[in-house]
Amino acid sequence: MSDGSRIPESRQEQREVLRRLRETLRPHASAQQVIVGVLCFLLGITIVVQVRAQDEDALQGATQEDLVRLLDESDRHVSELEQENEELDGSLATLQAGHEDDVAAQNAAQERLEDLEIVAGTSPAYGRGISARVTESTGTVRARTVLGVVQELRNAGAEVIQVGDVRVVASTSFTTAEDGTLLVDGTRVPAPFDVLAIGDPTVMEPALSIPGGAVDSVSADGGSLEVSSEEQVAIEALATVREPEYSRVVK
Amino acid sequence: MIAILGLLIGIAVGLFLQPDVPAVLQPYLPIAVVAALDTLAGGLRAVLDGVFNAHVFITSFLFNVLIAALLVFLGDQLGVGAQLSTAVIVVLGIRIFSNAAAIRRRLFRS
Q: Which residues form the signal peptide (chain B) (predicted)?
């Protein structure tokens, strides 16, 4: 093969080169030309096939080494993903546990809220208890006597108390109006009225009827107290809660 | 002329028939194509030099393709297939470039 640095020196030589090119491009029907054509034909097919294979699937043309490397890489990727999956599973379990704790805390808070609502008198309550009817026959039942009845009930373990239509809570007052009518928390409660209490009736009923107890003191005021135990006492009167004006929670 | 026609017809047939290559030949095909292109470039240069010989062209075409494929096969067997393929491609690429440069010098006077 001659070296590639030879440059045509004259115009004539240049023409000679171009003539050779034209000569070659002119079709000859010689066997050699046909064979060269066939080889080029095969080359054309091969190029197209190869380009097509590359388009279809990059892996098809890859060598064994490349394939092994790709396999290794995907294996590593899979193990990384599995590890990540485990971590995410762990955090999911943690979060679920935390959620369960939250639910438990919320349930406890809800129960406590209900208890406090009953104690504060802001929600209706029902349960076993007693119903005591106060009537006046000869005299007037004094406020302190009714307060005594309520105290007796509290001593006997009453959880929720209602006098007339008024819910009795920690701050409930028992006073007397100018005309002698009983005032519970400022609400007139004229006789006859009912005292309802939720608690253990087998304790509260005897507590009211002991000698010198509530029944006797109501009788001394010229009234009567009829106590009956009930399987289902519904206390629906509600107390209003005032915002504490002076008190602050100690922290 | 017949060569160019053959190339074009080959591309057309390849596009039209979409033949499948046996999996065994898959790795050798790209190298064979590059080797054939190198031979084509060398043939064109010989034509312009006025020393073209069809016998030489045909044998060098077949030999180049065979040797290129053989080298890749050998490389695969030795476990250096990728590197040897790269080496063959580089050498053939350099040859194609130098042949193309020679052709250019003959066609266009600097």
A: none
CB of A115 closer than 8 Å to CB of A98? no
Q: How far, in Å, are A17, A122, B68 from residue A51 at the CA level? A: 34, 84, 19
> Least CA distance to B44: which residue of chain A?
A21
Q: What is the pLDDT of residues B51-90, one digit of tens each?
A: 778 888 888 888 988 888 888 888 888 888 778 888 888 9
- Determine the distance in angstroms separating the CA of A79 from the nearest CA of chain B, rounded to an integer: 27
Distance of CA A174 to the CA centre of its chain: 45
Q: What angle separates helix A201-209 from helix A143-155, to the nearest 10 degrees? A: 140
**H/E run at residue B39:** helix B29-49
pLDDT tens digits along A127-175: 999 998 888 877 778 888 888 888 888 888 888 999 888 888 888 888 8
Residues 6+ apart with CB under 8 A from A37: B2, B3, B5, B6
Check residue A39 and give left, alpha or beta (phi > 0: left; psi -120 to 50: alpha).
alpha
A1-42 pLDDT tens trace: 444 445 556 677 777 777 777 777 776 667 777 787 888 888
Nearest-angstrom CA–CA distance, B82 and B65? 18
The Cα-based distances of A47 to B5, B13, B83 in angstroms read 15, 11, 22
Chain B neighbors of A53, CB-CB under 8 A:
21, 26, 29
Would the CB atoms of A65 and B110 count as touching at under 8 Å? no
Residue spans of alpha helices (H) in chain A: 11-25, 31-56, 64-120, 143-155, 201-209, 214-220
Q: Model pTM?
A: 0.46
